[in-house]
Design goal:
77% helix, 14 helices, mainly alpha, 0% strand
């Protein structure tokens, strides 16, 4: 297990370095300049670019960038979105609310998806199964921003249950009430995904020979389902549930803009539109870090619960 863990740590570090390099190169090769401003004279623009090392070759710029990260933990300074504010300080202020919205959406989606998937599998080919499958199709095929628009109109504007836009609050209850609509909008697709996967896996396990044998020996159906079938069917969900956090976090960029949530997603869109080099790279690395960490957690959990994965990794 130790060797397997170290290999996964090394793979995660290499992946992060490659993503960092690619993100820096792509952002710096974007058309335009961070100092493009019709009010600035060309001499001032040239001086600012020289100070930021933008007049140097691309690889030299990357060297200065890595040196700043390693020696000073300096990810650069925002020039247009929040001029003069370090990119890391901006993200440090906005990451908590983005993580809160996404984690709450998954905490809601997980139990509902498990209950719906279990009910659909146990009531296979009944009206309950058909109704749940229809809702699953809607949840998977309709984008979250469409659900968000409907929630804003009905729950926010029509019935006035929740605020249409985010309203900051000092207490947790008020914060949760203000963010309930985006949380619900982001949770619908994960609910549908978990339900679909669990239903398929659980149906396959319920039809297996050892389940038939357990019921034949007198074990009640509900005990066989909860003790044996559900445990075996939930193992493949590790591949789905944990990476789902990165997918939901990526999809929340549009939702954050719709509800005026001061999170990382809105900042990333602003920084790209305004060619704010340092802030764009910092936000890209944040999303990349979440993706790499989720993949790492999936590998470690699979290595713990399934020794075949661990042994396969050692032989590779």
């Amino acid at each position: 297990m130790k060797q397997y863990f170290l290999k996964r740590v090394l793979a995660a570090c290499v992946a992060l370095f490659l993503i960092l390099t690619l993100a820096f190169m792509v952002v710096r090769l974007m058309p335009g300049s961070v100092y493009d401003d019709p009010n600035l004279p060309p001499a001032a623009v040239a001086m600012l670019e020289q100070k930021a090392h933008l007049d140097k070759p691309l690889l030299t710029q990357y060297g200065y960038f890595l040196k700043g990260i390693i020696t000073e933990n300096d990810w650069g300074t925002s020039v247009k979105v929040e001029p003069g504010i370090p990119a890391f300080e901006i993200l440090k202020r906005q990451i908590p609310i983005s993580l809160f919205v996404n984690l709450m959406s998954l905490l809601i989606a997980l139990p509902i998806g498990i209950l719906a998937g279990t009910a659909a599998a146990i009531k296979k080919n009944t009206m309950i199964d058909h109704a749940i499958s229809f809702l699953v199709i809607l949840g998977i095929s309709i984008p979250s921003f469409v659900f968000a628009s409907l929630l804003q109109y009905f729950c926010g504007f029509k019935w006035e249950w929740f605020p249409i836009l985010y309203e900051p609050s000092a207490d947790m209850a008020g914060q949760l009430h203000s963010l309930m609509l985006p949380i619900i909008a982001l949770s619908l697709s994960p609910i549908a995904t978990i339900t679909r996967y669990l239903r398929g896996e659980l149906i396959e396990v319920l039809d297996s020979e050892y389940m038939t044998l357990a019921c034949t020996k007198g074990l009640p159906h509900y005990k066989a389902t909860t003790r044996h079938a559900f445990r075996n069917a939930s193992l493949p969900l590790i591949h789905v549930v944990i990476p789902m956090f990165a997918n939901v976090l990526g999809g929340s960029m549009v939702i954050e803009r719709m509800f005026s949530i001061p999170g990382v997603g809105g900042t990333m869109i602003k920084s790209i539109n305004q060619t704010d080099y340092s802030l764009t790279v910092a936000t890209l690395i944040f999303y990349a870090l979440i993706s790499v960490l989720t993949a790492f957690v999936v590998d470690i959990l699979l290595g713990i619960v399934d020794p075949r994965v661990r042994f396969g990794g050692e032989n590779a």
